[in-house]
Amino acid sequence: MSWDCGLRYMFSVPPSLQQGGMCVLHDKEDLSRLEMVQRLAKDGCRFLQNHSKGTERTREPQRDEAVRVHVRERGRDVLVLQRMSSEQSSARGGERGEEARHKRYTVVSGTPEKILEHLLNELMLEDDQGTTQGKETDSLLDDFLLTYPVFMSTSDLCQALLGQYPSKRYRGKEDRKEALERKGKVLHLVSQWVALCKGFLREDEHVQLFMKTLFRYVLDDLYEYPALEKDVRELQRLYPTHRRHTVDEYSPHRKSKALFHQLSFKENGLPSRGTQTDTKEVLCHVYMTMDSYLSMRAHTGVQAQELLQAVAERMDVPQGELALVAVTYPGGRLLLQPQDRVYSDSLRAVGRLHVCRKDVGEVLNPFTDNSELQQRTARLLSLNTWDVAVALTNFDWSIFDSIHEQELVYLVFSRHANSGHTVALELLLQRCNEVQLWVMTEVLLCPTLCKRVQLIKKFIKIAAHCKAQRNLNCVFAIIMGLNTAAVSRLSHTWEKIPGKFKKLFLELETITDPSLNHKAYRDSFKKMKAPKIPFLPLLLKDITFIHEGNKTFHDNLVNFQKLHMIADTVRLIRQCQRDHMAHDIAQKSSSEVRAYVDYLHIIDNQQTLFELSQRLEPRA
């Protein structure tokens, strides 16, 4: 590597400086960049300048943005860095001047390994010590940890992290110091990853094996590097291992070197984790007719008798008169016994569930007529609208609070991958769709005009209360349900709606207006303080547009600028979930209202819904 050439490219020396000229280092910024050159030079890297337009360098702030550094190995780019503008550097709130100057280069693109290596080089351990738990990680590190599933698997990330952990023995004092710093940075990065993922990837077998191997490496290093004890304690706090021997027993302050090496790692490995699918929840559909079902939230270990009991209470029918049948493909029927599990470990139901009468000779004869359901009185008319809105928000919040930011990345980029990574997100999306169908079902099953008017008024008030409770996901669902063709065509019903309710409906309808890229919704949502529940389909649409409009790879290098935009979008989940304990978005509601909201009766056949609409108000 030509040193004068490399320095010119690193420090953006004007073209007038010829080869062999001297480069004066004026401040700590230049020294830190020289150290970066020296580190990368050990790996045989070369530096090339991406010349911006014009031949002379000016003092205009815009010129900073054009300066890029290309790191090359074997004649190919492996990392591209871009100098941050002065405005970007000064925008980092709370950073000291020296730190802001140190972070004036950001990743544009690179190979996953080189991006990870750059992250480790940039980590400042002394600045991270003593920080309060929950402080956001550096933006670049956070972007990487949130979006790595776009360009690499969790297994690949685990292998790359192990590759960055120095494993050989060092004799020289400087080498030992450098190795200790590198080990500490790897442990710090892993701690940030575990803290970010929380329990999201706890069941991933690759993560379990990686943590087992990393703990083995660290425990082997504790005697030689006692300073790692603090880091491994923090990692064990974030990722409990249930070890028979803890780090206390490996501490060099308590054990001799001989005894330390006698301890068998086999006794201290991570125990095999049993399946935890029973702790997950699904929205279970129990069909009462061929096109209408009862939706209820249930754990995946639910038994047939539990579902039958819930359905019997909802339909006011003795449980002994009902049976639960699973209709399987292609047309087979399975009568479930009371103790049978409805869901398998893969979160799949044994079949489409139907509740049937135990009539003599017709055990497997399901309800086939909507007439008895249509004759029922609307229970919603007797319930307080604020209480219903509270129950709906509590239901949505219990799901939304468990959504991890990465679920949006997995759903958009890995639609055919393991659905176990997107359970909570899919659950809330399904709930949004069901609330919309529930609104249609309640209105269209109400036989009398005056009661339909009262129902629509109640739904408008419920939507307004949900907005007040900062649950825009439910606001969208209710308004879209009232705006569907089967409900909006009921002209005689809408004519009877009082003017103040029509005005309130128009105000809420404006929020759902898709014009100008949902500007009305976005403006209203920004004004709401956290915690709040966004309209998730729109958030997924934003990520999809970023994905479709930008390439993931440029010249076989990961386009990190695209990942930065995606990370900024998915971080909205974190911002919306913030301070939910302090503000307590969840409020108490009566048991009667909760029982009604938790078990929604829904007709999911659009043709049936439209036929009900025409039956209520025939075409002229």
* Count of DSSP-assigned helices: 29
Q: Write out the CATH superfamily name of the largest domain.
A: Ras guanine-nucleotide exchange factors catalytic domain
Name the beta content range.
Answer: 5-15%
CATH topology of the largest domain: Son of Sevenless (SoS) protein, Chain S, domain 2
Sequence stretches where pLDDT stays below 50 over 5 or more residues:
1-31, 49-65, 89-103, 128-137, 249-278
Give the helix level as a range of percent. Answer: 40-55%
Output mean pLDDT. 78
Radius of gyration: 30 Å
CATH class of the largest domain reads Mainly Alpha
Instruction: Domain count, please report it.
Output: 4
- Report the major sheet: 7 strands, mixed
CATH architecture of the largest domain: Orthogonal Bundle
Overall shape: it is elongated
What would you call the structural class?
alpha+beta
Distance between the ends: 86 Å
Number of strands: 13
Task: Describe this protein's structure.
It contains 29 helices and 13 strands. It is elongated, with a radius of gyration of 30 Å. The protein folds into 4 domains: 1-110, no CATH class; 113-274, Son of sevenless (SoS) protein, Chain S, domain 1, CATH 1.20.870.10; 277-368, Roll (Ubiquitin-like (UB roll)), CATH 3.10.20.90; 380-616, Son of Sevenless (SoS) protein, Chain S, domain 2 (Orthogonal Bundle), CATH 1.10.840. β2 (68-73) and β3 (76-83) form a beta hairpin. The strands form 2 sheets. Strands 5, 6, 7, 8, 9, 10 and 13 form a 7-stranded mixed sheet that branches. The protein has 620 residues and is of the alpha+beta class.
